[in-house]
Amino acid sequence: MEPQTPQTEPAPSHPPLESLAVQPLVNRDYESRPALFYERLRAEYGPVAPVDVLGVPAWLVIGYPQTLDILRDTRGIWSKRLDSWRARREGRVPADWPLLPAFEVDNSVFRDGADLTRLRSAWSEGLRPFQDRTRTQAKELERDIRRYADELITVLSENGGRGGWADLSAQYARPLPLMIVGRLLGTESGRGDEIIMDMWRMLDAGPDAAEAAARLGAEVAGVCAAKMAVPGEDLPSYMLAAVPDLTAEELTREMIMVVGLVGDYTGTLICNTIAEVIIGDAGVRDSISAGMLPEAVNRAAISSPPMANLTFRWPKTDVRVGRFQIAAGDPVMLSPAAAHLDPAFTGTMAPDSIYSSRAHLAWGAGPHACIGRDLATTITTIAVERLFDRFSALRLALPADQLPWRSSPMMRGLRSLPVNYELPAEPPAPPPAGPAGADTAPDRDAAGEAASRSLVRRVLRMMRLSQS
Ligand code: HEM
To answer: What does the pLDDT average to over 367-375?
Structure first.
């Protein structure tokens, strides 16, 4: 039988989702022992489980074949449009449901059909100069990522002598991608620092988060309006060039996504990869020593996918998945994290292999698959490579099972990553300038390096992560 079947055989009879969804998704085990939590769900319900997502009932898909099948959506059964949600149309979704603001943004994530194709083509074309490693833009970006990474490492280790303590989340994995957001949006000068600070405040979800989010929205709108007037060599300008009828509002909504995707999810992947390497799980350390950093990132994406669970989808017709009949308009949450633990997936991976299965779902698949995968992988690869190059030893400052995880219904990442580090006796060699062919004119290089250094120092000072 196929993993999902539109009504071709008698539907199983069971109570509706609303009366089945008694198990809260976010609970202590979900946060601290997710593998155990998903295994219990699998044992009780099979590949699809009814759960309560912060007060809203939803089907959580935890089986690998079912998740892949729904992502691919070859029969056009699934919608990502918010107006497909039956309970919302009927006024049964609480107005203060915490995920509602994230779901109501009306960007490409929540579009179908021609609307989606148009926005996705803007994304693919806009990202191409940064993701195609033969292009000058991509080479320059890689060089800057190396510079930001090196400067962050210099700052975090400058008071420690030959060794010391650092929080690699707060001092490295989080600030690095935020600087890259500014670089992609084309805001390095002028208002760039403020945008970075507001991203930080918003993502930290502290008391000033709502104000920061509003300011950030206005700042990004200002950047997009400026790019519409005078295009530059940046992501919003390239997206506009690809799809010239994008409105300022549409462009702004997509650019706000960059903050979460680069600033938060990529920072999370960096942290999760560093943790995987240090802990030495899942063959990641072997991959690093064999010089296969992208493979290490791949493995970390399998064992701790930053997008643990995805935003809802809704079937347009009743459909059977696993043991349940999912009614048209019921919310369905796909779980790459749980799918990666499904024996149907893990059984395909040899435990001693240093090559992992590429068929993982950390980047999604099908019509909504991640378009920024290469960029996120490049950022993460460089970040991890610079770290392990500069330090001669890195050890967790806490037992691995006491690392503090920050879990939301959709994301899984470390709240902090405390480490003890050691520096080599010899001062580090200057970082490689970048792949062959990058612009390495000495005076431009020195100026670029000074600009990166000053940006990193300014931002760290604002974040109160450095006095200098
Ligand atoms: C580690 C970082 C990232 C992870 C784990 C990640 C993961 C994902 C996943 C799982 C999806 C599919 C969601 C779904 O089907 O519901 C997705 C979609 C997408 N991602 Fe990423 N992503 C990351 C970084 C990025 C970056 C850096 C960009 C671009 C700057 C990006 C751009 C997109 C876009 C445009 C979509 C498609 C939206 C849609 O069509 O619905 N992502 N990403």
So the answer is: 97
In a shared domain, residues 198 and 242: yes
Distance from Cα 265 to the centre of ligand 1, integer Å: 9
130 lines ligand 1 (CB under 6 A): no
For residue 109, how far is its CA from the centre of ligand 1 (angstroms)?
Answer: 9
Domain residues for 326?
Answer: 1-101+307-339
pLDDT over threshold 70, residue 354: no
347 is a domain residue: no
The answer to whether the beta carbons of residues 149 and 119 sit under 8 Å apart is no
Distance between Cα 433 and ligand 1 center (Å):
29
Q: Which atom of ligand 1 is nearest to the CA of 377?
A: 1
pLDDT digits (tens, 9 = 90+) for 91-134: 999 998 988 888 888 899 999 999 999 999 999 999 999 999 99
Q: What is the chain's Cα-based Rg?
A: 23
Ligand 1 pocket test: which of 73, 370, 410, 414 has the largest number of ligand atoms within 8 Å of its C-beta?
370
Q: Are residues 67 and 162 in the same domain?
A: no
Question: Is 315 found in the same domain as 287?
Answer: no
The pLDDT of residue 356 is above 90: no
Top mean-pLDDT range of 100-114, 115-129, 154-168, 350-364: 115-129
Alpha carbon distance 60, 281 (integer Å):
27
Question: Which ligand 1 atom is at minimum distance from the Cα of 120?
Answer: 40
Shared-domain flag, residues 293 and 311:
no
Residues 393 and 266 in one domain: yes
Closest CA to 392 of 420, 434, 363: 420
The pLDDT assigned to 330 comes to 98
What is the model's pLDDT at position 327? 97
Q: What are 59's strand-pairing partners?
A: 50, 332
Q: Do 263 and 367 share a domain, yes or no?
A: yes
pLDDT of residue 436: 44
Using the atom order of ligand 1, give the atom closest to the CA of residue 235.
Answer: 30
Q: Which residue bears the tokens 């079912």?
A: 66
What is the arithmetic mean of pLDDT over 61-68?
97
d(CA 391, CA 428): 9
Report how far ligand 1's centroid is from the alpha carbon of 220 (Å): 19
Among 268, 301, 106, CA closest to 178: 268
Structure tokens at 2: 């196929």
Task: Give the least confident one: 174-183, 329-338, 438-447.
Answer: 438-447
What local confidence, expressed as pLDDT, does residue 408 receive? 83
The answer, yes or no, to whether any atom of ligand 1 lies below 6 A from the CB of 379, is no
Would 344 be classed as within a structural domain?
Answer: no
Tokens found for residue 369: 């698959």
